[in-house]
Design brief:
elongated; 9-stranded mixed beta sheet
């Protein structure tokens, strides 16, 4: 590989992962080697690119201006390499996926298992985040594609996958445990455990739609923390049905009297410019 290109990759990956150590693992170089390459860039360009500290690294103002150009060069090289791999039968490559916990837990293992049967040498990088983070990762090119709640940003190409029902979560022995459905208006009768994942929370949208004000006693982005709190009798909540598969908690899930759903889909910038590995991977989403 061209030495300058390798330096650009060292710079980009160090910023992406926030440390020389993680960048060295990804690029299979020593930590000192990664640091030296970035020092060489700073010397050649006569500007400081990174601020180093015990907490990691962060961009300088000069580094912030130059990073997009370095990322563009590295991105084009990765696309070139993917096409070369494609001509050789898709024997190698990497697919970077942005996802949230329920998809990572219940869909991706099956999808990747089926894909690996045909393309065993493809590697994967999974980034777990909320909807807003995943949208940003797609925008910056940090991931090749992302699982999201639809609709998402209009500039993205999207593909609808499944409608996921939102369920009321109550402890065993609750007064509505034997009911066919949980009354929407009863969501405000007792402490509520609010699952908030970024700026786009489907649960908050339910309350706004029906002009309800819940008694929020606990807010978190972790689905399993919510389940544990409900199991302990600390309150009730609403969670997507997908995350409720194969759970160890002693809780009861009930549909709402006025059903609510989230639409799950896949998003990417443009499938026509995506690598062959990504395009082939999307064909296997049926195995979720």
């Amino acid at each position: 590989m061209d030495k300058n290109l390798l330096k650009y990759m060292a710079f980009v990956k160090t910023v992406e992962y926030g440390s020389f150590t993680k960048a060295s693992e990804i690029l299979n170089y020593s930590q000192s080697g990664i640091s030296r390459m970035i020092n060489d860039l700073e010397t050649e360009w006569k500007v400081p690119l990174l601020e180093r500290s015990k907490m990691g690294v962060k961009l300088t103002s000069d580094g912030l201006k130059l990073l997009p150009h370095a990322k563009a060069i590295v991105g084009e090289y990765e696309k070139l390499q993917m096409e070369v791999d494609a001509l050789n039968g898709l024997q190698s490559g990497i697919i970077r996926i942005g996802t949230f916990s329920s998809v990572a837990t219940h869909w991706l293992p099956n999808i990747i298992k089926e894909f690996q049967k045909d393309y065993p040498n493809i590697d994967y990088e999974l980034l777990l985040g909320d909807y807003t983070e995943i949208e940003e990762w797609i925008h910056t090119g940090r991931v090749d594609l992302g699982f999201l709640r639809l609709p998402t940003l209009p500039e993205y190409e999207t593909h609808f996958l499944e409608k996921d029902e939102l369920m009321a979560i109550i402890p065993q022995g609750h007064r509505y445990a034997d009911s066919d459905a949980f009354p929407v208006e009863a969501l405000c009768d007792e402490p509520f455990m609010l699952l908030e994942k970024g700026a786009k929370a489907e649960i908050s949208a339910i309350f706004e739609r029906y002009n309800l004000t819940p008694k929020v006693h606990f807010t978190t982005w972790d689905d399993y923390a919510v389940m544990s709190m409900v199991e302990s009798g600390l309150g009730i909540s609403i969670l997507p049905n997908l995350i409720l598969k194969r759970i160890p908690y002693k809780i009861v899930a009930k549909p709402l009297t006025i059903p609510a759903y989230r639409d799950i889909g896949i998003a990417l910038k443009n499938s026509k410019t995506a690598s062959l590995a990504v395009r082939r991977f999307m064909e296997y989403l049926q195995y979720r």
